[in-house]
Amino acid sequence: MQVSYIQVAIPVPMRQLFTYIVPATINGEDIQTGARVIVPFGHRQVIGIIISTSTTSDIEDKKLKSIISLVNDNFHLPPTLLKFLLRCADYYHHPVGDVLQLALPVLLRQVEQPTIDLATTWHSQQFEQVNEETVTLEKITKRAPKQAELYALINTHQGLTWAEIRTLGFTKAQLNTLEKKQLIEEKEQKSECFVYHDDALAEDEKLTLTVEQAVIVSAVKASFDQFSCHLVDGITGSGKTEVYLQAMEKTLAANKQVLVLVPEIGLTPQMLSRFEQRFNLPICLHHSGLNDKERLQTWLAAQRGTAAIIIGTRSAVFSPLHHLGLIIVDEEHDGSFKQQDSFRYQARDIAILRAGQLNIPIVLGSATPSLETLQNALSGKYQYHQLTQRPGQSTQSKITLINVAQQQMEHGLSGTLKKAIGTTLKRGEQALIFLNRRGYAPAINCQECHWIADCQRCNKPYTLHQGQKLLICHHCSSQKRIPYQCPSCGSVRIKPMGQGTEQLEERIGELFENYSTVRIDRDSTRKKGELAKLLQEVSDKKHQLLIGTQMLAKGHHFPDVTLVAVLDVDGALFSFDFRAAEHMAQLLVQVAGRAGRESKPGRVLVQTNFPDHPLLQDLVNNGYPHFAKYALTERKQALLPPFSYQALFRAEANYPSYPEKFLSALTDVTFDGCQFAGPVPAAMEKKAGKYRYHLIVQAKSRKQLHFAVYRLIHTIAQNEWQKKVRWTVDIDPLDLSW
Ligand code: ADP
Ligand code: ZN
Ligand code: ZN
Question: What pLDDT is stored for residue 108 in this prediction?
Fold first, then answer.
């Protein structure tokens, strides 16, 4: 039958589909759900996605527009992906057009069609005579060790793409030089489905599993063709990555794809190279550092099945995988899996949903599982696996608290800590000093009248960035020159207050002047390739003192770091956010995991004013698992998530009364099993000139929560304040400060 109407999702923030007429000139058989169409919308033409088709319409034909054309390039959203995306839009109560956009690379969202050239890959040249190769190689090894390293990499992993090479810390210049020297060559990538072959697995790289590891691998393999969710709760260094690698084998051998979600690609080069060493199969990376073309190529490699393994950050969960067989979420507790603006999805949670829809297994791994995940594992909803030992000789580092209230402090360092750093350096080992505050100082003030330089738009102090000679607001990013005189009393005695990583680097450099210091934070690694370069310098032992923010806490492997110092944990002990303690504990354990990874034992020193705080005591004496169970009983008593379910309505406007009244009006209705908390001003009450309010809806069950949110959103059309505010809804909110 000829289809005459289609319902289309359009990238606009509206919670509805739009109906269009299909002109008779278009063959009805070409109209498929998930396909892209060009449609008129207002005065523009936009790309929409067909969600459904019908032969009749409730709207009169004369009120409807016709589609302009159908995009006939086979790059539709596959049916299973479309179904998944619609579920996500539903779950997060987010406009469907917006959600679908996320699953398409930019180039496929444009009305002009992209020209698609295939990705190229790099291979080492086959030399006629061994002699030739050795001569050239000897030359470059002496003069350009980095080039030699890159050559060795390409030689062992034939077929790397530029995106992968870049992620592993090499430059285009190095690649080009090798090509000029005719050591390597570029080839077009094939676009057929990958096929598992005899050399796909590097057998000799495989480690003999410990009993704990083997149990997990066989449990995952056993559920290879059905849905099951596995939590691998394993201390840092216990061999989670090895478990992932071996659990993947069976899936790959069946020619099915594996999706690996990681918090941040740039931070895990070592993990990537382990995947590449193990599998001689096409691996694709998906992360924010890719340009539009590379994104499209990754998308196509997933959709056509060319890529066997996709490793990516949060949004890789929407990859159009042709034949997905297994999902792995590494560091599942990591906050970066939650998108904090517009479509606020949690990639780990919807990865589980996707695995369920496809009836495939999913593995969540962490040394510090989130309380939500842990509760699901303890209650039997997930299969719970623990790795309690580190294979080999390395032992877990012990955390010791330093009571700073009783010590003379110098630049934020206690005497005990200074001494410990000194001894570590003398032994020729490295120390990592962790301070979660970037910039030079968190504020500047006038010594005479105590005036503080505040960002007027956020009512919060400006952070001093000495290197850039600027004051920067960390909330709205506005910048200002450093005043010479106090605007309030005219004094020139303006001084920094408190200490950030930039200042700490300076002070530590002075205190330990015979050693080299390196700082790793968002500011020092802004330049492309800089992070990889600094990390390489650390492993080459060019630096002995590493200073950094939580960027340094994640996944790195520094064999010579034997001391980790945490300068300040107190903020999290007294926070309004009920998750602050959980996050603090996760961070501490992760940072501690950086020490003593190999045979050398590690120490972790934590400075605090509250060494007797029960949470700190529990964590230090009994470890994360005990802490987590205790924290869960507290949550249960207070009926907080995961023992209840939350949605957060946020509203902002130029005047505080608007968002308050807007949210207040929502609380007029009552819902079964649901409670409102608020409206209250957000913890960051003012940001970038806007006043912000919160309303939390808390329910005993998800079903009740979704029903309430659905109804509330529908009442908003009648809310008299709705035009005066900007509002959003966040399901399972993580960040309660905004
Ligand atoms: P995690 O991901 O849990 O932090 P990794 O997988 O990185 O741990 O493993 C930590 C170290 O232990 C690595 O150097 C790895 O090679 C080694 N390792 C892992 N499993 C085994 C094993 N079964 N036998 C020997 N060494 C192992
Ligand atoms: Zn003053
Ligand atoms: Zn600001």
Answer: 87
d(CA 507, CA 411) in angstroms, rounded, equals: 7
Q: Are 124 and 184 in contact (CB under 8 A)?
A: yes
Q: 666 has which bridge partners?
A: none
Would you call 463 helix, strand, or coil by DSSP? strand
Ligand 1 centroid – CA 207 distance (Å): 8
Q: Please tell me the predicted confidence (pLDDT) of residue 193.
A: 78
Identity at 292, one-letter amino acid code: D
- Ligand closest to Cα of 457 equals 3
Q: Report the distance separating Cα 35 and Cα 53, nearest Å.
A: 11
Atom of ligand 1 nearest to the CA of 271: 7
Determine the angle formed by the axes of helices 211-222 and 240-253, rounding to 10 degrees. Answer: 30
Ligand 1 center from residue 240 Cα (angstroms): 7
Q: pLDDT value at position 294?
A: 85
CA distances from 213 to 205, 239, 245, 394, 486 (A): 16, 8, 11, 17, 62
Ligand 1 pocket mutation, candidates 206, 207, 233, 598, criterion most atoms within 8 A of CB: 207
Q: How far is the CA of 610 from the centre of ligand 2 (A)?
A: 33
What pLDDT shows up at residue 447? 92
| Global pTM exceeds 0.70 | yes
Q: Would you give the distance in Å from CA 318 to the centre of its chain?
A: 14
Q: Which residues line ligand 1 (CB under 6 A)?
A: 207-210, 213, 234, 236-242, 391-392
Under 8 Å CB-to-CB from 719, ≥6 apart: which residues?
A: 662, 665, 666
Which two tokens mark 259? Answer: 């999706």
Distance CA 112, CA 72 (A): 13
Position in ligand 1 atom list of the atom nearest CA 242: 6
Per-residue burial over 367-383, b = 16 or more CB atoms within 10 Å of its CB, e = otherwise: bbbbbbbbbbbeeeebb
CA distance 508 to 602: 21
Q: What is the pLDDT of residue 51?
A: 93
Q: Which residues of the chain have pLDDT under 50?
A: none
pLDDT for position 584: 87
Residue with tokens 């699901």: 376
Predicted confidence at residue 29, as pLDDT, reads 75
Beta strands 443-446 and 494-497 are antiparallel
Residues that place a CB less than 5 A from ion ligand 2: 446, 448-449, 451, 486, 488-489, 491
Instruction: Please give the pLDDT value at position 390.
Output: 80
How many Å lie between the centroid of ligand 2 and the Cα of residue 576? Answer: 32
**DSSP code of 37?**
E
Nearest ligand, CA 239: 1
Distance 244 CA to ligand 1 centre (A): 11
